[in-house]
Every structure is written in structure tokens, then in C-alpha cells.
């Protein structure tokens, strides 16, 4: 375990040092273009090496790669794209080790717990593996089930997760001391967020509870089903549930062979996912093809001849009240073309860290509403893609300057919607998720703590108060102008002037360094002592030229 931890830390230290050299040091000495020239290839290389490390170590490192691939808010696309295909590329655990763990957890032999269990795994992953089995006659009679699947954790995975999390926390501590990183991303919080999700995922009782809660949400919905749990054969590290293997949702040929229209599956799947997000507030956050089956029905149920069967409830998401209120505020601001209200909603959702200076973002939002505000989704689709692209570049420049990250709940929503959109598009190339989401946006506004009319009424009262105070405020402003007490401040301009002034001082120091160094070298042939003194003294302006920016950003010493 110590060797595993050291390997993770060595990898992190190596590439953090490389990043510091190219992204911080070289730009500081005027070589920003050199650093930028190979940035894309360099980032891709780092991601590729991490991919290899994750596959070799297995355990939580594969989950780290999958987690990073979804953090589009924090990491550059060169890294997320390379890691998005990272799967559980690990060999299966030999069955004797799996048998020993399962029997220790269940307290009985596998022969007594099951009448049959297949020693060849149905699927092997970094945290556990799945085997097909049949219940014993007694359990089958009690549960009404016969064929089941048994999900069993890999032996020692708990210790591996602890070691990996400890190493990741140390790396987060390193990054939190780098001002450039700390101002933009709360890395320790990201690691704790990941740790919480990972520890929940290796607790199969948590997954079982998630399956039951999801089942309750759709108890009266004929479109959705959940496999039944066998609680008598379920523990924190062993999960037994009904075998519901059917047609994979992305098996277009299999769907057509069963007489099921793939385009109808796409539309219904989008509707089911939106119901989870905006009606139930509890959703499956990992709806990839391996976790959703389309199950044909023997007879029509509620006018349907098939249903969706969801499996694997280890990664579930909620839309909590604060997030729902923030989303509602965002929608109201968008409807009223209120740039400041939009930024306030973004803050409430938790996308911006408290240190964010949002003046530029508010201006960008106002510009967005001026051009695209009031357009329906259909109208937006007719806008020239080049115009969207130009605005996206400008908007991205503003966003990159902010301490911006997505909170975990919002991230899971984005992940679920991204997988849903991709799934539906693979089923029906003509599918458009915007047409599917439009009715749910209005439904969210109606159901989140009041209706839109009340919100606009409160906003109208606020505006009325501002209008009522406006004459007095204008009078006070006129008085201040007459007395010469009005000054105009532009934080962005001031920062720019300070930066130019600092750069000028550094250039002077660099020139002085060169003069002293060259003068010392020339004088050494005639006066060794004086020439040496000049060479040594030249180090002072060199240090100022290199590190004045760091000293000024940290502020004066107490």
C-alpha cells in the first residue's frame, strides 16, 4: 500500500512540477509563447500517462479518471477528452477470493446461500464484479425469484480506497498552496466531493436503498421498473438482486427485431429522465447503455408493450431545495433578461466561488440577452453557428478569468443530461433534446416554491422601491458632483495599469542586470575584485525581474 501511495504521489509531483515550469515560470520570464506552443500536446500526454497509471493500479484511480473526464468546468478539453473513454479495464478477481469474501459477508457458504453461482463473472470492474446465480429453494419460495445476479466487492478494495483518498488529499494540499490554482478552484473541496461519492459507491446497502427509493418514485409509472432486491443475501459488500437482463437500450437492431421503434424509445427515455430531474428530484446519474434495458412485456400494461428497466444505483443524484431555488432564479432572470439576476442565480447554485469579481460576467450576460434573449429553442437552432461560436469564444474568456466550478449536484445533472442526449441521438439521429426539455422548464418554475407571477410581483415591488428612491439619489449625486466628491473607478483598468507599471519595473531591472553582468565580465580582466562585485550585485535586479510579480500579488510583509 505504501508503494501504491508513493507511485500516485510521484506521478502528481512530476506533472505538477512540469506544469509549474511551463505555465508559471516561463511566462514570468517572457517566454509565454514558448510555453503555449506545445500546451495541447503536453496536456494530452499527461492524460495518456494517467490513463496508463489508472489501468495498472485499478481501484479508485479509474474512478478518478472517470470523475476528471466529467469536470469540464475545471479541466481543459485535452484532458477530459482523453479520459472520457477510460473504462474499468481490469482483470477479474479469481473466484476463490471472491467466494471467501462473499461467504464471510453472508455468514454461510455459497452452496447454502445459492443453489448455483457461475464462477465466471458477468462483468468485472475496479470496485467489484457481478456473477449470475440462482436462489436456494427456500429463498426462492420466500421471494418469488429464482434467477439473480450477485454483485461482490473486490477483496481489499476498502483499504485501496483509503490509500488512494489519502494520496489525493495530499495532492490537493499541494495545489491549495498555489495561488493561481487556489483562486480558481477549491481543490480540497473537489477531493472531498469525490471521496463522498466513492465511499457511497462501495457501500452496497446505500445502493440498495437508492434502488428502493427510485422504485418508489416510479411505483405508479408503467414506463419504468427496478429489479427486486434480495435483502436476505445483501450486505455492505454483497448485493443480490433480480436478474433483469433484457435488450440493451442502445441495441437498435435488437429493438427493431422485438417490434420496438427506436425513435419512440428515445422520446420516452428523455421524458423519463426529465421526470426524474424536475418532478421527483431524485435521478439516476449514470444512465449509460449498460445500466438501462428495454424489457418487452408479455401483455400490454397501460397500453405499453415494453418498459425501461434501470440497474446499478450506486451513483444517484438529488436536486436539493437550494439548487432548485437557484435554477428557478436563473430561469426567472433569463425570462426578464436580467444579467445581474442571472449572475446572482449562478452564485446561489454554487457555480462561482465567493471571491469572484462578476462585473465582466454581468456585462457578458447582458450582451447574451440582448442578442439571444426571448428566442425559443427552435429560433436558436436557426442562428448561424459561426455567431454562436464567436460569442462562445468571447464568453469563455470571461469565464476563464473567474473562480468557476460546478457543484457536485449540478455536475451530476449535467452528466445525466449529457448521457441522455447522446443515448437518444444514437437511437434517433433526428432527435433534438431541446424540444424535449422545453415543457419541463415551465413545469420546474411552477413547482419550485411558488409560481412565476409571484416572483415577478416581488421583482416589481423591488423595482418600485428603487424608482421611489431615485429622485433623492439623483439629488444626492448632483450635490456630490457640485462639491467635486465624485470619482470614477474601473477595477479592471486599475489592475491593468498596476500590471503595466510592474512590468516596466521588471524590464528596468532586467536591463540593469544585463549591464552589471556584462560590465563585471569586461572589468574582471583589469580589476578582478571590482568585476566580481559587479557580477554578484547583478543578481539583485535579476531576482527582482523574476519575482517582483509574486511579491506584489502577495502584498507587503507585515
Layout: helices, strands, pairs:
Layout: H1 2-28, H2 32-37, H3 39-57, H4 60-69, H5 77-83, H6 95-106, H7 110-113, E1 114-117, E2 123-124, E3 128-135, H8 137-143, E4 147-153, H9 157-176, H10 179-182, H11 187-201, H12 204-217, E5 224-225, E6 238-242, E7 247-248, H13 252-257, H14 262-280, E8 282-284, E9 292-301, E10 304-310, E11 316-318, H15 321-335, H16 339-349, H17 359-372, H18 377-381, H19 385-400, H20 408-427, H21 433-447, H22 452-482, H23 491-523, H24 528-537, H25 539-554
Parallel strand pairs: 5-10
Antiparallel strand pairs: 1-3, 2-3, 3-4, 4-6, 7-9, 8-11, 9-10
Helix pairs in contact: 1-3, 1-9, 3-4, 3-5, 4-5, 9-11, 14-20, 14-21, 15-16, 16-17, 17-19, 23-24, 23-25
Could you walk me through the main structural features you see in this protein, from its secondary elements to its overall organization?
With 558 residues, this protein is α+β, with helices and mostly antiparallel strands. Helices cover 64% and strands 9% of the residues. It is built from 25 helices and 11 strands. It has helices at 2-28, 32-37, 39-57, 60-69, 77-83, 95-106, 110-113, 137-143, 157-176, 179-182, 187-201, 204-217, 252-257, 262-280, 321-335, 339-349, 359-372, 377-381, 385-400, 408-427, 433-447, 452-482, 491-523, 528-537, 539-554; strands at residues 114-117, 123-124, 128-135, 147-153, 224-225, 238-242, 247-248, 282-284, 292-301, 304-310, 316-318. The strands form 3 sheets. Strands 1, 2, 3, 4 and 6 form a 5-stranded antiparallel β-sheet that branches. Helix 3 (39-57) runs antiparallel to helix 4. The radius of gyration is 30 Å and the shape is globular. Residues 449-453, 455-465 and 553-558 have low confidence and may be disordered.
Amino acid at each position: 500500500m505504501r508503494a501504491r501511495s508513493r507511485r500516485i504521489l510521484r506521478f502528481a509531483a512530476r506533472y505538477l512540477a512540469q506544469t509549474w515550469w511551463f505555465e508559471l515560470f516561463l511566462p514570468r520570464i517572457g517566454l509565454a509563447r514558448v510555453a503555449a506552443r506545445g500546451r495541447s500536446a503536453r496536456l494530452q500526454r499527461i492524460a495518456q500517462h494517467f490513463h496508463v497509471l489508472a489501468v495498472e493500479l485499478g481501484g479508485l484511480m479509474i474512478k478518478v479518471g472517470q470523475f476528471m473526464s466529467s469536470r469540464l468546468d475545471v479541466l481543459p478539453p485535452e484532458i477530459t477528452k482523453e479520459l472520457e473513454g477510460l473504462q474499468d479495464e481490469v482483470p477479474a478477481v479469481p473466484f476463490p477470493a471472491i467466494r471467501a469474501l462473499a461467504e464471510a459477508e453472508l455468514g454461510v457458504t455459497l452452496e447454502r446461500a445459492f443453489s448455483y453461482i457461475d464462477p465466471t463473472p458477468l462483468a468485472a470492474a475496479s470496485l467489484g464484479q457481478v456473477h449470475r446465480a440462482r436462489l436456494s429453494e427456500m429463498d426462492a419460495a420466500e421471494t418469488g425469484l429464482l434467477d439473480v445476479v450477485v454483485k461482490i466487492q473486490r477483496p481489499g478494495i476498502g483499504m485501496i480506497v483509503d490509500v488512494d483518498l489519502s494520496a489525493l488529499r495530499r495532492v490537493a494540499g499541494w495545489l491549495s498552496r498555489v495561488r493561481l490554482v487556489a483562486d480558481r478552484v477549491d481543490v480540497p473541496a473537489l477531493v472531498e466531493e469525490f471521496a463522498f461519492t466513492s465511499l457511497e459507491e462501495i457501500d452496497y446497502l446505500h445502493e440498495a436503498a437508492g434502488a428502493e427509493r427510485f422504485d418508489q418514485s416510479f411505483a405508479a409509472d408503467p414506463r419504468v421498473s427496478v429489479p427486486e432486491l434480495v435483502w436476505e443475501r445483501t450486505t455492505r459488500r454483497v448485493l443480490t438482486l433480480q436478474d433483469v437482463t433484457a435488450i440493451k437500450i442502445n441495441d437498435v437492431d435488437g429493438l427493431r427485431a422485438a417490434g420496438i421503434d427506436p425513435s419512440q424509445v428515445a422520446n420516452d427515455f428523455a421524458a423519463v429522465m426529465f421526470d426524474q430531474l424536475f418532478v421527483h428530484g431524485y435521478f439516476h446519474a449514470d444512465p449509460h447503455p449498460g445500466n438501462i434495458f428495454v424489457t418487452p412485456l408479455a401483455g400490454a400494461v397501460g397500453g405499453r408493450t415494453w418498459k425501461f428497466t434501470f440497474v446499478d444505483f450506486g451513483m444517484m443524484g438529488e436536486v436539493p431545495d437550494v439548487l432548485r431555488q437557484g435554477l428557478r432564479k436563473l430561469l426567472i432572470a433569463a425570462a426578464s433578461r436580467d444579467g445581474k439576476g442571472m449572475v446572482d442565480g449562478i452564485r446561489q447554485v454554487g457555480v462561482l466561488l465567493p471571491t469572484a469579481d462578476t462585473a465582466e460576467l454581468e456585462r457578458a450576460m447582458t450582451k447574451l440577452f440582448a442578442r439571444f434573449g426571448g428566442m425559443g429553442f427552435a429560433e436558436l437552432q436557426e442562428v448561424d453557428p459561426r455567431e454562436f461560436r464567436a460569442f462562445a469564444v468571447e464568453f469563455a474568456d470571461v469565464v476563464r478569468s473567474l473562480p468557476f466550478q460546478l457543484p457536485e449536484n449540478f455536475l451530476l445533472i449535467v452528466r445525466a443530461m449529457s448521457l441522455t442526449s447522446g443515448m437518444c441521438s444514437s437511437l434517433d439521429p433526428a432527435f433534438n433534446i431541446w424540444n424535449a426539455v422545453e415543457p419541463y422548464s415551465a413545469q420546474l418554475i411552477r413547482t419550485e416554491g411558488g409560481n412565476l407571477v409571484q416572483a415577478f410581483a416581488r421583482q416589481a415591488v423591488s423595482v418600485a422601491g428603487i424608482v421611489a428612491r431615485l429622485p433623492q439619489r439623483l439629488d444626492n449625486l448632483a450635490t456630490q458632483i457640485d462639491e467635486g466628491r465624485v470619482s470614477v473607478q474601473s477595477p479592471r483598468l486599475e489592475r491593468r495599469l498596476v500590471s503595466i507599471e510592474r512590468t516596466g519595473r521588471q524590464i528596468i531591472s532586467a536591463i540593469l542586470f544585463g549591464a552589471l553582468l556584462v560590465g563585471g565580465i569586461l572589468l574582471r580582466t583589469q580589476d578582478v575584485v571590482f568585476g566580481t562585485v559587479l557580477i554578484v550585485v547583478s543578481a539583485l535586479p535579476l531576482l527582482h525581474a523574476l519575482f517582483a510579480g509574486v511579491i506584489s500579488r502577495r502584498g507587503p510583509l507585515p
